Amino acid sequence: MSGARPAARVRSRRELAAARRRRAHSCWDHLYAAPLWPMHGANLGTLLRTCDAVGACLAVPRLPWVPEAVARGNTLRRRSCVHWTGDQLDWLRARREQGARVVAVELADEAVRLAELPPARRPTVVVLGHERTGVPPEALELVDEVVEIPMVGTGHSLNVAVAGSLVLYKLAGLV
Fold this sequence. Notes:
Layout: H1 13-19, E1 31-35, H2 41-54, E2 57-60, H3 66-73, E3 82-84, H4 88-97, E4 101-105, E5 112-113, E6 124-128, H5 137-140, E7 145-148, H6 160-171
Parallel strand pairs: 1-2, 1-6, 2-3, 4-6, 4-7, 5-7
Helix pairs in contact: 2-3, 2-6
């Protein structure tokens, strides 16, 4: 049969490990996932796993339940790059003052579509809002741009872990 494609060969764990970085991520202050108003602990664990995959750091507020949720969600079983923000707005202001690009994931009139978002070329913070209320207006005043994830279904938005993962992969230049 001409034109038939060969069956896909699954790479072994050894082959995968050889192709990836040799040691765990160390903070290089380039890309942050910042779910600064989290609602569900499970989403923090999922987002932490994505951060490891793309070489990003997770920035979260030290709400009473967040440290345990992050620890429980770290399925990699090694130390991950987590930054504790303290006051969310002060942390965002400090990142901007240090020259970071601040990108909010939100539905807004001036939002760029995810497909049009260029890869991060300088330190970038991806701000993710509350699952029900989104990014607060006072935080939107601190962002450089807003990105929107197009949807054709009936829902209004994706959950924080899924939305953050899509944007992180795009900013990391991996899709």
